[in-house]
Amino acid sequence: MISEGAALFSLSCRDCHGRAGEKAALGLSRPVAALSAAEITAALDERRRRPPRSMQDRIKSGLTDDDVEALAAYIASIKTHP
User: Fold this and answer.
1) Comparing C-alpha atoms, which of 82, 67, 72 is closest to residue 19?
2) Domain residue ranges of the chain, discontinuous segments joined by +
């Protein structure tokens, strides 16, 4: 699961959130590395449900439950193993 999350993060998240989730994406979010797996899951679930207003929203709206779980697991792993 972590390898799937790493692949998704690299393709869809890294440019805005940074290699280790250290950036505030578009200067608007908290760095994802500061969030727990539960907070990541909740944030992605909320973004998937709202109407897309940007390219980032369209990317998030296409995530499956398995994708969200994999991303949350991966991001939690990079916080503990940079």
Assistant:
1) 82
2) 2-80
The region, left, alpha or beta by phi > 0 then psi within -120 to 50, assigned to residue 5 is alpha
Model pTM score: 0.84
Residue position matching structure tokens 């993060």: 9
Distance between the two ends of the chain, CA-based, in angstroms? 17
45-71 core/surface letters (b: 16 or more CB in 10 A; e: else): eebbeeeeeeebeebbeebeeebbbbb
Which tens digit of pLDDT belongs to each residue from 43-73?
A: 999 888 888 777 777 788 889 999 999 999 9
Q: Which CATH class is domain 2-80?
A: mainly alpha
What are the structure tokens assigned to 52, written together?
A: 């897309």
